[in-house]
């Protein structure tokens, strides 16, 4: 199912990112499918809790670069925006089991989870600026609100990698557990939640989010707008070309290129124009 596998058992909907050969990097079709999974689960009375994890050796390595180049997100109802809205509107508990790489969106998506258990060897990073981009999934608001501007600047502006223990210190994960017991721990928590009164769980989650829900939604819309502009910038094209060509980017040569608000499409690896994809301009 487009890299997303689901299984339902005793009130727990298990959601697995399933592209292990690509470290579960997200494609536009995966964003759409995952959004639909959460939208349907929100309406399904059988689902009391969502348990989210990744197949193979990573949780999620962010966007699949080649797919991203062919399907850059737009400022409106893009596949990425569809998932953002589905997550923020989901009023049932989300338990995430994170291991290996959690890069870019693999980190920011977690800010919409209620429980995040990280394996000891998990590595997090938000390298948006190094790619000529801005943070997304409302993280420009949620991260400073959760950990303070100074700490958020270190993670977003410098794009520094950090390990599971540092994530726990910052309050980005619930608990660090041994890798071998990660999924079992998250599954146990999900089962405990599923055994509780469903209506009380949903109301309590809505109440906990109510004070800042409008602020997060506004931040998500603004993040999406700025992200879609930067995606089409000369700096982003150079960063992605360098990534695909396995070299260091040279942003100095992009300074006299296309203006910031140009609406030209991305070019694959900086050469011929990309094919039109699912992302909206």
What's the number of helices? 11
Oligomer: single chain
Summarize the helix and strand pattern as letters.
Answer: EEHEHHEEHEEHHEHEHHHH
Total strands: 9
Parts with pLDDT < 50 across at least 5 consecutive residues? 257-281
Beta strand %: 5-15%
Question: What global shape is seen?
Answer: globular
Main β sheet profile = 6 strands, mixed
Classified in CATH, the superfamily is 2-enoyl-CoA Hydratase, Chain A, domain 1
Q: Please state the second-level CATH architecture.
A: Alpha-Beta Complex
Write the layout of secondary structure elements.
Layout: E1 4-9, E2 12-17, H1 28-43, E3 49-54, H2 65-70, H3 79-89, E4 94-98, E5 101-103, H4 105-108, E6 115-119, E7 123-125, H5 139-147, H6 149-156, E8 162-163, H7 164-170, E9 175-177, H8 182-194, H9 198-210, H10 213-231, H11 234-245
Parallel strand pairs: 2-3, 3-4, 4-6, 5-7, 6-9
Antiparallel strand pairs: 1-2, 7-8
Helix pairs in contact: 1-3, 3-10, 5-6, 5-10
